[in-house]
TrEMBL record:
It comes from Brachybacterium equifaecis. Coiled coil: none annotated. This is BMP family ABC transporter substrate-binding protein. It comes from the Bacteria. Keywords: Cell membrane, Lipoprotein, Membrane, Signal.
Length: 371
């Protein structure tokens, strides 16, 4: 698997938070050459979001941030197409093809079939898909010459977050839930559950995980990535059942968990995809974010554009790991005092153990198993 020329370093090494974009596009097909792009550039990089949109404080926004960084640093032009419903995926891709995009990013596992079909129909356009490989109409992974998969083994980082949660909880219960039961969601939940189990094994405790049974691959899901009310209702249930830390893996739906956490003392949240402390705009919610399971999406997006503009594009998959800095957990920010120094040291050692292979974090949803 290719290692990107730049990577993000996370807790245990050094912390670099993904920065939320100032104002994401509001309509499909918006975009331009602001942010320092050369007006006469003949290379155009484009991006299609999934239904969460570019202002999701999560993976779509991280991808958009990387696109704008590429625009600024490479002097290219950019265009975007924001999806609000899966029925728009193919038409949004086609719109960008018609706009003479040289490179089209599709953000999210849900776009995999549309990416596969439209890439095959447009072999002269280069594609990169975040969080998946291309798929055929039946949902089977396929290798396409002009599609580069960008994936992240987030189970590794979620393992660390689960360990932190188990070592920080005061109730003995933590929880996680997803938006839709797809591999890029359940991989977080698998890693989180295993991290809790590891803490229990090491410390002889019995911290319980609500919302996900890894062995059965069954748990709690809201059914979409947009309805924050569902996220709040589910989180209300978890907190009322005694959980004091909840990890939503549901894009914008996670804001519902933050809303629930704000309603009572002693409720905390673990964010995903980006550093929620940095990306979430609600100042009252920031102090409730214990840590975040982060993907280096922005850096990966910019690096693929760098390769493409240098005629070095390839369809070789990239998988972000703890070792190459593609995944990690964020700093504890305002809650650092709640994470004992001994626990922080244990987490740093666990990261080293995962990198050197002493500990293997397994998930059926790992990119290595799905490619």
């Amino acid at each position: 698997m290719k290692t990107l020329t730049r990577s993000l370093a996370f807790v245990g090494v050094s912390a670099l938070a993904l920065t939320a974009c100032g104002s994401a596009p509001e309509t499909a097909g918006s975009g331009g050459s602001d942010g320092g792009a050369a007006a006469g550039s003949d290379f155009k990089a484009c991006m299609v979001s999934d239904e969460g949109g570019f202002n999701d404080k999560s993976f779509n926004e991280s991808g958009y941030t990387g696109l704008k960084a590429a625009e600024k640093n490479l002097g290219i032009t950019t265009q975007t197409a924001e999806s609000t419903d899966p029925s728009q995926f193919i038409s949004n891709i086609d719109r960008l093809v018609d706009q003479d995009c040289n490179l089209i990013y599709t953000v999210g596992f849900m776009l995999a079939p549309a990416t596969g079909s439209q890439a095959q129909a447009n072999p002269d356009v280069e594609f990169a898909i975040v969080d998946s490989t291309a798929q055929d109409a039946d949902g089977n992974a396929i290798e396409v010459d002009n599609v580069k998969p960008i994936s992240f083994d987030t189970a590794q980082a979620a393992f660390l977050a689960g360990y932190v949660a188990a070592g920080t909880t005061t109730t003995g219960k933590v929880a996680t839930y997803g938006g839709i039961q797809i591999p890029t969601v359940t991989i977080f939940m698998d890693g989180f559950a295993d991290g809790v189990a590891k803490y229990n094994e090491v410390h002889g405790t019995s911290v319980e995980v609500l919302g996900w049974d890894k062995a059965a691959q069954q748990g709690s899901f809201t059914g979409d990535f947009s309805d924050q009310a569902k996220g709040k209702a589910l989180s209300d249930t978890f907190y009322s059942q005694g959980a004091d830390i909840v990890m939503p893996v549901a894009g914008p739906v996670g804001s519902g968990t933050l809303a629930s956490a704000k309603e009572a003392e002693g409720r905390y949240v673990i964010w995903v995809d980006s550093d929620g402390y940095e990306s979430v705009s609600d100042a009252d919610a920031k102090p409730l974010i214990l840590t975040s399971v982060m993907k280096g999406i922005g850096a990966a997006v910019e690096d693929v554009a760098t390769d493409a503009t240098s005629d070095k594009f390839s369809n070789e998959p990239y998988v972000g790991t703890l070792e190459n800095g593609g995944v990690g957990i964020a700093p504890y920010h305002d809650l650092e005092s709640k994470v004992p120094a001994e626990l922080q040291t244990e987490v740093e050692q666990l990261q080293k153990d995962i990198i050197d292979g002493t500990i293997t974090v397994e998930s059926a949803a790992s990119p290595h198993n799905l490619s």
